[in-house]
Design brief:
Blueprint (H helix, E strand, L loop, with lengths): L4 E11 L5 E13 L12 E2 L6 E2 L13 H8 L12 E6 L2 E2 L7 E7 L5 E9 L4 E8 L7 E7 L13 E8 L3 E10 L2 E14 L2 H6 L1 H26 L13 E3 L15
Parallel strand pairs: 3-4
Antiparallel strand pairs: 1-2, 1-13, 2-5, 4-6, 5-7, 7-8, 8-9, 9-14, 10-11, 11-12, 12-13
Length: 268
Amino acid sequence: MIPNSIAIGKLNHIRKSPSFRKFGFNHTMILLNLSDGQNSHLPWPLTRKKHGLISMFSGNHINSSSKSLVKKIYDSSLESDLTILDSDTILMLSAPAIIGYSFNPASFYFVFDDKKYFKGSIVEVHNTFKESHLYKMPSKSESTTKFEGFNIKQFHVSPFLDRKGYYKFHFSVTSNIFDIQINLFQEDKFIFGSRYKGKFVTLSTKNLIKNLPRLILTVTLTEIRILTNAAMIFFIRKMPFFEKPDRLEGTNDSPAVGFISRLKIPFK
C-alpha cells in the first residue's frame, strides 16, 4: 500500500466552451493512510490539531462533527453504490490547513479492498458559497492503481458553468506518481477539465520542512487564484454568468469556509 506522502505536482485547468482558456500552477498536497492506526503520530510539524502549523484536521472535512474522518467516510457511503468495509483501506489526498486556515476546492478519498484493488473513490468538493458535496463512486475497472468513475453534476461550483452535465473521473495512483483527472461534459461535449499530476515523496519531518513553502503557497494562493480567474472571466472575457441555484439533496454546509464567501462581489 502507498505510504504516507507529500504530493508535489502541477495542477492544470482547461476550458473549451464557450471561450477557450488554459492555465496551470504548482500544487502540493498530503496523502495519508486513514486506516493505519499509527497515523496518530504524524511527523512534526504536521498535526491533527485544528491550529497546528500544518494540520490535517478532521473537522475541516465532510462535516463539522467531532467524529473521526474514517467514521465520517463510512457514514457518508451508507446510502450510495460504494460499500466500504472495515477491511478496506482509505487513502486521503488533500491540501492541509496552515495555522488553522483551510479552503480545499477538492479532496480525494481512495478506497482499496483487502486485496489492494482500487475499489472506489469519494471526491469532496467545496464551493465559495459555504457549501460542500460528496461524489461517491465505485470503480468501473479492476485495477490496483487505476480508477475510473462517472457522476452526474449535482453541485454548483463556478458561476460561469451551469449545473448541468456529468463528470468523468480518471485516477492513477502508485507508490511514486499520481495522475488525477476530472472532466466535465455537457450534452456529451467536453467543456472543462482539471488534471493534477506529479510525484510522491516520503512524508517526514525533513521533507515537510523542505516543502513547507510549497504547502503554504498552495493553501494561501488557492482563493486568490479563484478570484483573479473569476475577475478575468467576468470583466475581460465577459462570459455568461449563472446565478447560484437552490441546493440539491446531498449538498451540505461546508465545514471549512474561506474568505471569498465573506466578500460581496458579483462573480462568487
